[in-house]
Amino acid sequence: MLGRRAMRWQAQRRSANVEDRRGSRNALVGGGIGTLLVALLVFFLGGNPSMLLGGGGGGPPQPGELTAEERELGEFVSTVLASTEDVWHELFRASGSEYREPTLVLFSDQTSSACGYAQAAVGPFYCPRDANVYLDLAFFDELSRRFHAPGDFAQAYVVAHEVGHHVQDLLGTLDEAHAQMERLDEAEANRISVALELQADYYAGVWGHHAAREGLIETSDIEEGLRAASAIGDDRLQRQSQGYVVPDSFTHGTSEQRLTWFRRGLESGDPSQGDTFNARDL
C-alpha cells in the first residue's frame, strides 16, 4: 500500500527519462538469486550488479495492466527523478561541467539490463554500462514492512541514492573505485565499496537539501529518509539474516554510518564535502 503522500509532488513536473516496463514479463535465462540470505544481503541499496547478475537476452514482453495505485507510484518516482535532474543540473553547472541525465527503468519481478538480469531480490541498482537506474517498486513495500521505513521521502531517498551512483559515474569515481577494488583483497575492496555507498547516501542528502529549499519536502518528510538510511545498514541486515555481524564483510556501511552521511548531505547541500574515501570515521 502506498504511504501518505506528504511530499508536495503532485504539482511538480515529471521526468521524461522514465522507461516503464512494469506491464511486461521477460523470460529469465539461467538461475537467479536462490536463497533468502543472499536476497537479504543484496537488498542493500546501490550494489554492484555486475558481480551478482548474469547476462542474457529476454523473451518477448507480455503486456499487463497497471492499477491506479501503481500508476500513481510511477508518477511519484518520475517527479522525484525530475527533481534530482533539476538539482544536479544546477550543481554541475555551478562547477563548470554538464550533467547528463540517467534513465529510470521501472520493472516488475525481473528485466534485462546492460549489467545482466535485474531481479526484484537484488533491489534497486544503478548500471554504469547503460547509465540506467533499475527499480522494482515492490521494493517500497519491502522497505516499509521488513525495514519499518515507510513514507514518501523514504521512497524518494531510494531513487536519490541510486542517482547518487550516477553522479559518481559522471565524475569518474565509480571507475576509479572499481579499478582499485580489483587489485585489493576482499576486506580492503569492501572498505572501498562502503565508501562508494556512503557517498551515494551523502549525495542523496545533497538532493534533499536543495529539494527542501524548493519547498518539495518538509521536516516531517526528512525524518522518513533518515529512518530509511538507518534501517538498511550492513550491521542491522546481517543481524536480521544470520543473527550476528561480520564487519569485514560490510559493503554498504553500518546503520549509523549511512544515517550520518545522509544527514551530512542534507545539512550541507555541497557535493564537494562528501569525500567518504578519506574520512576518518569510516
Question: Gist?
Answer:
The chain has helices at residues 36-42, 68-94, 138-145, 152-171, 173-183, 186-213, 219-231, 234-242, 255-268; strands at 18-20, 103-107, 110-113, 116-119, 125-127, 132-136.
Describe the overall structure.
Mean pLDDT is 76; it is low at 1-5, 26-46, 48-63 and 233-250. The chain has 9 helices and 6 strands. Helix 2 packs across helix 4. The protein has helices at residues 36-42, 68-94, 138-145, 152-171, 173-183, 186-213, 219-231, 234-242, 255-268, and strands at residues 18-20, 103-107, 110-113, 116-119, 125-127, 132-136. By secondary structure, it is α/β, with parallel strands linked by helices. It is globular. A 4-stranded mixed beta sheet has the order 1-2-6-5. The protein has one domain.
Could you give the topology of this structure?
Blueprint: E1 18-20, H1 36-42, H2 68-94, E2 103-107, E3 110-113, E4 116-119, E5 125-127, E6 132-136, H3 138-145, H4 152-171, H5 173-183, H6 186-213, H7 219-231, H8 234-242, H9 255-268
Parallel strand pairs: 1-2, 2-6
Antiparallel strand pairs: 3-4, 5-6
Helix pairs in contact: 1-8, 2-4, 4-6, 4-7, 5-6, 6-9, 7-9
Features:
9 helices, single chain, 282 residues, two-stranded antiparallel sheet, four-stranded mixed β-sheet, alpha/beta
Radius of gyration: 18 Å
Report the principal-axis shape: globular
Assign a percent range to the helix content: 40-55%
User: How many domain regions?
Assistant: 1
Question: What profile does the largest beta sheet have?
Answer: 4 strands, mixed
- Element order: H for helix, E for strand: EHHEEEEEHHHHHHH
Mean pLDDT: 76
Give start-end ranges of low-pLDDT stretches: 1-5, 26-46, 48-63, 233-250
Percent strand: 5-15%
**Total count of strands:** 6
Q: Which assembly state applies to the chains in this document?
A: single chain
Spatial sequence of strands, sheet with the most strands? 1-2-6-5
Q: Termini separation (Å)?
A: 36 Å
What would you call the structural class? alpha/beta
Number of helices: 9
